[in-house]
Amino acid sequence: MSPDTALVLALVLPLSAAGVTALFARRPDLREGATLLHGLALFGSVTTLVPHVLDGQRPALRLFELVPGLPIAFELEPLGMLFALVASGLWIVTTCYSIGYMRAHEEANQTRFYACFAIAILGAMGVALAANVLTLFLFYEVLTLSTYPLVTHHGTEAAKRGGRTYLGILLTTSVAFLLFAVVWTYEIAGTLDFRPGGILAGKAGGGTVVALLALYAFGTGKAALMPFHRWLPAAMVAPTPVSALLHAVAVVKAGVFTVLKVVLYVFGIDLLATSGASVWLMWVAAATVILASLVALTKDNLKARLAYSTVSQLSYIVLGAALANRFGVIGGSMHIATHALGKITLFFCAGAIYVATHKTEISDMRGIGRVMPVTTLAFLLGSLSVIGLPPFGGSWSKWYLALGAADAHQAVFVAVFMLSSLLNIAYLLPIVVRGFFFAPPGAERPEVKEAPLFCVVPLCATALGCVVLFFFADGLYELLAPLGGGS
Amino acid sequence: MGGHLPVLPIVLPLLAAPACVLLRRRPVVLTFGIGVAWATFALTVQLLLQVLATGEPVTYALGGWAAPYGIEYRIDVLSAFVALFVAGLGAVVLTYAPRSLAREVPADRQYLFVTAYLLCMTGLLGISVTGDLFNVFVFLEISALASYQLIAMGPSRRALTASFRYLVLGTIGATFILIGIGLLYEMTGTLNMVDVAHRIAEAKGTRTIRVASAFLAVGFGIKMALFPLHAWLPDAYAQAPSVVTAFLAATATKVSVYVMLRFVYTVLGPATSFQGSKLDWVLLPLALVAMFVASGVAIFQTNVRRMLAWSSLAQIGYMVLGISLANVTGVTAGIVHLFNHALTKGGLFLAMGCIAYRWGSVELRDLAGIGKRMPVTMFAWVIGGLGLIGVPATAGFVSKWYLVGAALERGMWPVAALILLSSLLAVVYVWRVVEVAYFQPAPEERGSVREAPLSLLVPTCILLGTTLFFGLNAVWSAGVAEKAARVLMGGVP
Hints:
The complex is a heterodimer of chains A (487) and B (493).
Chain A: H1 3-23, H2 28-48, H3 50-54, E1 60-67, E2 70-75, H4 78-105, H5 110-129, H6 133-151, H7 157-189, H8 206-219, H9 231-234, H10 240-267, H11 269-275, H12 279-298, H13 302-323, H14 326-357, H15 368-371, H16 373-387, H17 393-407, H18 411-437, H19 453-471, H20 473-480
Helix pairs in contact in A: 1-2, 1-5, 2-4, 2-5, 4-5, 4-10, 4-14, 4-19, 5-6, 5-10, 6-7, 6-10, 7-8, 8-10, 10-11, 10-13, 10-14, 12-13, 12-18, 13-14, 13-17, 13-18, 14-16, 14-17, 14-19, 16-18, 16-19, 17-18, 17-19
Chain B: H1 8-23, H2 26-54, E1 58-61, E2 72-75, H3 77-104, H4 110-129, H5 133-152, H6 158-188, H7 193-203, H8 207-224, H9 233-239, H10 242-267, H11 269-276, H12 279-299, H13 304-325, H14 328-359, H15 370-373, H16 375-389, H17 395-409, H18 413-439, H19 454-472, H20 475-489
Antiparallel strand pairs in B: 1-2
Helix pairs in contact in B: 1-2, 1-4, 2-3, 2-4, 3-4, 3-10, 3-14, 3-19, 4-5, 4-10, 5-6, 5-10, 6-7, 6-8, 6-9, 8-10, 9-10, 9-13, 10-11, 10-13, 10-14, 12-13, 12-18, 13-14, 13-17, 13-18, 14-16, 14-17, 14-19, 14-20, 16-18, 16-19, 17-18, 17-19
């Protein structure tokens, strides 16, 4: 398959998945089978692009012009390759998981669910492949709007309220700040194309760069930088598969991806590093890392705790971008993949526990490890990866991030990463300890009762993925190496 | 026909209107009217193509009397563009009319509806093509008188009050415009726009010209419902028959904005309007206030049609803002928003017509559960609503893109920020409807309501579909608007 065809397929397949899903509304087996097939095909076509990108090629596609002079265009570079791989790969796993979860729960409106899910993936792919800021912004908003019906899936008062916060914050930040930044960039640079080394270098002065960076960083509400993080916990009213894919992978990663991409290809890391315009952002991100971890400690609801953990971990990536050096950027990019696998495992486990036992509060999960040993074990693996211990993928990204902080002569942020790891241990591991070592309520020994197979297999797969990623970090590094300039 | 093409889009509906009174029988009149409307649209397409092909304005001397003594029609890119979408929307809305009228206007009065509708269209098209000041006033009155009648046909008796109120304010506006034109005539001794533009330099800076600009600004302000001269609009839009609201919202105010553009940039010229009369410092604040106040009021409306009417007032603010920014990008934004908003609001009011037809109410609280019962209509409505917000991939985004760009070009970044902030108010009023429509169960008595009939649904979806098209591929719409803006900014066309 030629790279151009694969690129087109990467955008067409999610769209056709949405269409086919709607077509088979009354035949659930066909509908979900079709989604799964589309997912496999998507992942397949995205994978075929990897060798080309490793070779240094940049497959590109140019559609019509949205505004005269500004086309909707796509171009695949290493960072986008990584994000596309993560999003499309985990779509397959999540679809399997959704089948188990949604059926076990007898959820209503499943067709709408699968169709919106596919459109959300289209949004993620568009963000990953965008060749200019306008295209990225377009798909960013597609992602926001298509996930709104998913967040409010249950249609209850709580869902409506969560949806309001979700849409309110994401649309407000993107329209008020991000769009402003995009138009402003266009005014200054006369182009919106992503170019290695940036398009603003030599065109914008110190104050302007700081202001623009602020507009981009806060405007990308999906990156959940404090104080614009409230939408993420609010979105936890969604069914767990949605929380898993969208709020651990696609939506939030689209946010940090945007930040990374803008830092790399709009500002250029040299501009930021020499002007020091991103130092304030490091502090904001570091503050978010610590504060969100502290909030996570106080949450008893498992999904809420995971949500705040996500907020904290996302700021690792923003911090990596703000460090604006080779290792910071590579570590941040790698963290997109490693955190995605770790966090999706944790969400899958949370959902599996809910399906099997209807428990949502951590304090109720005493002895859960004896009832659901596989799930709890997977939870442990996922936690260790998020904490960043070897031999799990998460350790590499943290390592590079810390290296980046050291390279930038910002020892304080090395300390922040370490402190955050400790906090991760403090809010994740007690759940496992409580599960395995505390006696379950009730006297006699409970029976083993796992969630349906469709739920358990995906979460085992992603937990193993965390381990596999540790040994394949080389490949990741090779893919991402061009980002840091140099080689 | 070649040589007479410029006058045909006016003559055709003008002659067809009285013919409707003679034909009288309902199906015949409606078919005839629709045929005439589409033929007019075809003529305007032809006209625009001709203007774009030559790049020169097409002129036509009425009755063979040479300008500046006779009346001259002078059609540049902007005129042809406005005429095109007025005729196009007129045709689409009239095609939608028969089914919708059946519920809202008694059958024995429908021939009068078609007559008035065609006359209104004549007036609006006439305004956009004429190059003569007094002729503008004449066509303005033709369209206004016809629209008073159209509004008065509304189903409830309150339509009469709404129409009367519009009549009073509209007449005041027209009088102001006439006085303004009179003063211009006094100072320049001519009524031909191009001629005035040439001669105004001699009178530049005189008090008479300044007074004339003030009278004109107020007059057009009333006609286009620029805040705070908007009092007639919400009632008129809420009470008129659905079709009329869609037509007037899509075209009438837009044509008034067009005349304003024409006077500010062609007749008076930027030098007189802005340096002499400081019109930009009058229009810019009013536009900003309109954007916020009208959107704010829209949030608190309980009737969705009235809410959309208030939203129109805010959108007119965007157009006027573009005009008052006085650079090519700003004028482009104003012009392209004329077009984009005509499509969006026209489509939204048609969707309201579908809802009124099946659901029987357009009160917000009555719309509970409509998303399930009329999925296509509501989906189209949501697309339109997203267009009002200016979400990317809708036409509204393109307008906003240019508008923000224009403000930044002038270095007015607070204005740019205000534009973006005001669009967040649109999120609030659009989402109020979405939540009611999709998250509340339909009451039992509406359990059997079906989707709107195809004859209503298709025109609605066509209009809202085009907003998506022009949102994704604005090369044509924004390209033409930019050409028109360049011609305008170049001074005399």
